[in-house]
Amino acid sequence: YTKSGCPFFVMINEGNEKIEGRLVTDIAAKAEVFDPFTGTASPISASLHDSGFAYPVNVGAHESKIIGMDPSALPVLEEPEKIVLSEIVSLGEGRMTFDFKPEVGRHAILSFTKIDEIADIRVNGKDATRLIFKPYETDITNYLHSGENTVEIELTGSIACKYGSPVPAGFEGCTVRICDKPNAEGAAKGENDEMWDVYDKDRRQVGRLQRRGDSMKDGDYHIVVHVWIRNKNGEYLLTKRAPDKMFPLSWECTGGSALAGEDSLTAALREVREETGLKLDPANGSVVIHADGDNYFGDIWLFREEFDLDKVRLQAGETVDKRKATKDEIIALIESCEFVPYDYLGRLFEID
Length: 352
What we know:
- By secondary structure, this protein is mainly beta.
- It has helices at 264-276, 327-335, 345-349, and strands spanning 2-3, 6-12, 19-25, 30-35, 40-44, 47-49, 52-59, 64-70, 84-90, 97-100, 106-111, 114-116, 118-123, 126-131, 137-139, 147-156, 170-172, 175-180, 195-199, 205-211, 222-230, 236-241, 251-252, 254-257, 285-290, 296-304, 319-325.
């Protein structure tokens, strides 16, 4: 649709699952995305594409979005990421598995040269996404685990197949691109892209994923880890939270949620590596306390390991300072309201 020389693209999702992808066009224009339900408009940036420009598309279940373009202004371009292609794996013709070794900055992109109609993608038995629009690709990294991984594709034909000649339903050119982002360690995580495995009350995976920021259902749980590192002098590694976070400028241990495909230990090691740059020895750590909440299993890890404070790297947007502290010093910080109020600290300090 065009009005006064300005093109508009209307996207409607009548399904029950969110659709994510990119709008690819040869139109060089400044773009905004409009939400007709809220009346809000937000500028969106484009990335360069072989066919022109690619604009991100994110349409929730039973929602619609409109992208409007102003050809009198040039598109705002995203800063191109430096990506190194490490491997390409072809899938199809009886082979729908591939090996993957998780590393910081490593991503796996599932792509197709062609999809007729609708393709629902499952990775390792979990619903990943639905592909309808070009380019037919999606990042499946959060659904992968170390070792062999399996991709399933369910195709849905058009209602047009019921009338006249059948409309083709299939796919071509299915590949997985393994890419590495140089210097990706410690990069800030996008909260909206973070996915968790969902567990029942008995800590059994239920085969669903939970997006960070979305409300969890009653009876659903995910794994949260707190990681305490204590040296032989009884000193713990602490970091100070950024001023725009909950409990601003308070001291804390390292912690976070386990991502989809991670167990508790893997999550603990990753969080420490991302937030401090330290690589811990898994043999030095153990879960010493379970501090569960309404919708999470809280695993409190204690690593009895030496660390060099000068080698601790602060994570932009997350932490602003670092220090060592003994048990008594932490208690003093708590009393002066300078420490995140963990309710299990008394039990932690009783552990040798």
